[in-house]
Specification:
Largest sheet: none
Radius of gyration: 36 Å
Mean pLDDT: 74
Low-confidence stretches: 65-74, 154-163
Strand content: under 5%
Length: 174
């Protein structure tokens, strides 16, 4: 009789363990399902928020973003006249302010042209005569690629009117 009771105990224990294991499996499945649903809901909500925060599209025929020139790396400078018009339109600049902004743009362009010329002169100074020739050819190709414009796009003093780099100094004869 002792054996029978132990057998019943063992069978009952096995059934209890099996029931516990099945409960655990069911809980894991429910947890995974809840996690998947929660992630899906999060994605839907974030997409909805992103669409809600997006700026409305510009009216038909109106350019989005600033008009760009042919500057370095596709990030050309805005045409000063178009930039001025955009500022006047968006900020409501009066005539006096427009005159002052034009002067600021002109001053900035002149300073950029002088800085660029100074950089080119310093760079040429550290090059050998052979490197200077290659450098000049490289600069000419870049200028031609930009349509004759300077490195900053169609900007006043930089618009291809910058003086050419100084002529290379003759190499010392040995």
């Amino acid at each position: 009789m002792d054996r029978e009771m132990r057998g019943d105990d063992a069978a009952g224990s096995f059934k209890r363990n099996e029931v516990e294991r099945m409960k655990s499996v069911m809980q894991m499945k429910m947890f995974r399902t809840a996690a998947v649903l929660l992630c899906g809901a999060g994605l839907v909500v974030s997409a909805a928020v992103a669409q809600q925060d997006a700026a409305p599209p510009p009216p038909a025929g109106q350019q989005q973003g600033p008009p760009m020139g042919m500057g370095m790396g596709g990030r050309g400078a805005m045409d000063p006249q178009r930039h001025l018009e955009m500022m006047q339109k968006r900020l409501g600049l009066n005539d006096d302010q427009m005159t002052q902004v034009k002067a600021i743009f002109a001053d900035g362009q002149a300073k950029m042209a002088a800085l660029h010329q100074e950089q080119m002169t310093k760079m040429r100074a550290i090059l050998t005569p052979d490197q200077q020739t290659k450098f000049d050819a490289m600069q000419a190709r870049m200028k031609a690629h930009r349509g004759g414009m300077g490195p900053m796009g169609p900007m006043g003093g930089m618009g291809g009117n910058a003086p050419p780099p100084p002529a290379p100094a003759p190499a010392p004869q040995q």
